[in-house]
Amino acid sequence: MIMDQESIPIRVRYLYRMLLEMANGNLAYRIPRSEEDDDIEAFTVFLNMVAEEMKESLHHAGYVNPHFTYRYISQSTFILDGNFTIRNINNEVTDLLGYTPEELFGTDFANILAEESLSVWDTLKGLLIQNQSFSTKVSLQFIAIQQLVVPAFCSVSRLLLSDKIVVSYFTAVNQEKLEETTSRSASETFEKEIRYIDIHLIQSVYDYILANMNRPLPTIPELSRMFNTNEYKLKSGFKLLFKTSIHRFYTDERLKRAHLLIEHTATPLKNIAANVGFSTYPNFSRAFKIKYGYPPERVNRQHGGK
Amino acid sequence: MEGYFENEYARFSIIKGILFFEYKAGLSINLEVARQVVADRIHFQKEKAYPIFCDSNGLVAMDKAGRDYLAQYGSMLAKAVALYSNDNVARVLSYFYLMVSKPEVPTKRFTDKDAALQFLEKYK
After folding, report:
1. Does the beta carbon of A105 lie under 8 angstroms from any beta carbon of chain B?
2. pLDDT along chain A (306 residues), means of 10
3. What's residue A174's pLDDT?
């Protein structure tokens, strides 16, 4: 197998392994980085970034959707003892990392962590020993069986009545797994609706808006003409895929920029409101307060301006 | 030189109406770094927009959250951005940033400093 052939440099073998995982729908892995700055490293970085982008796109397209009753999540859990040895795991761990339970039971948890995470883990161990009710969230990088890296945002906590520790991590599962475990009708409705939406078109509209934040938002009829579609498809497609209306999205982005400008410049608030495209200051102030829960005047201005 | 500033992640200076921005060696950009860099830059520019020369040779990695943040908010108070890099990894990071994260203002990649400065002249 190419992936294991010793005549091929190990870093090139990683590239093949990664592509294979991605082809199998696994976008959670990353190729470990080296200290080199050659073509292989450039390709490695590029491929990692591609997987990261794809993972987020899939994630967003509805695999984890708060508007639905069922959440399509997978939870990986480790139970460690007071010596940070793995005492128990659930099935998802073996799916995610590729080791058999026997390979993991009784081994030091640190063995499956990537080098970048070892010092963080050391610090955590100290805190877990000192504090009986310690609990935190932390980014850890695991090493899967093919030596590929799996970044995971984990919850680490001590169980209260013993010295056991739980390390847990959630991820969105791929299509096949979720069909087994979730209601047919919820996913069917979404799938049906999404089939009639030109995802590429809606993405273009989204990108267009972001690229033109310094201009007034075209009206919905204008946008429909620009993108060769009808108003209903535009509005409902955007709402379904991005979970917000076009207008709300645009306003939110304007307000975020305003917040940054208020925090870090001494520009008068009236000017900032105009800069980010609000027609009157009261309109700006109202929208700002709705979004942030406090008025523009209350933003901590590091410049001390008004 | 019209001003100089340095933080944990980068060095900023304004020379002849162009903002020179240099990432420090070995830097990995995540959301937190991106936020700090943008905040400090906006602060340093004192509300004025500039064409920006960005030397990204120091970059080793950029995660998606950092990329996306920079593509949007890193364009604030920027008239145009020239991304300068010769190192392989830095070049690939710039390329990806340009083609996928799609920054909001005119942004081009350069391996030659003079060409980069020439590009920025138009935006002064």
Report:
1. no
2. 79 93 87 94 95 79 38 81 95 89 95 94 93 91 91 92 91 49 54 70 88 89 92 88 90 92 90 90 94 92 59
3. 47
Amino acid in position A201 = L
Tens of pLDDT along B22-75?
999 999 999 999 999 999 999 899 888 999 999 999 999 999 889 988 888 888
Residue where the block lists tokens 């490293």: A41
Phi then psi for B3, rounded to 5 degrees? 155, 150
Which site among B12, B41, B47 would you substitute to test the A interface, given the most A Cβ atoms closer than 10 Å to its Cβ? B47
In this complex, the residue of B43, B73, B92 whose CB is nearest that of residue A46 is: B92
Complete edge-to-edge strand list for the sheet that includes strand B78-84: B4-6, B10-15, B18-23, B50-55, B78-84, B107-110
The answer regarding whether domain A75-172 maps to CATH 3.40.630.30 reads no
Closest Cα of chain A to B44: distance in Å?
Answer: 9
* CA-based nearest distance B115→chain A, Å: 23
Residue of B nearest to A211 (CA): B104
Average pLDDT over residues B7-23: 94
- Give the three-state DSSP class for A243: coil
Test B102 with A38 for CB contact under 8 angstroms. Answer: no
pLDDT at res. A179 = 44
Domain A2-63, CATH among 1.10.490, 1.10.8, 2.60.40, 2.60.120: 1.10.8
What is the rounded CA–CA span in Å between residue A59 and residue A54?
A: 8
Record: contact B72-A207, CB cut-off 8 A: no
CATH number of A248-298: 1.10.10.60
Give dist(CA B44, CA B38) in Å, integer. 10
Q: Two tokens at A17?
A: 């392994």
**In 3D, which of A47, A50, A45, A17 has the Cα closest to residue A33?**
A45
Regarding an ipTM greater than 0.90, the answer is no
Residues B14-29, mean pLDDT to the nearest whole number = 94
pTM score, whole prediction: 0.73
Residue A266: alpha-carbon gap to chain centroid? 34
Domains of chain B: 4-121 (3.30.750.24)
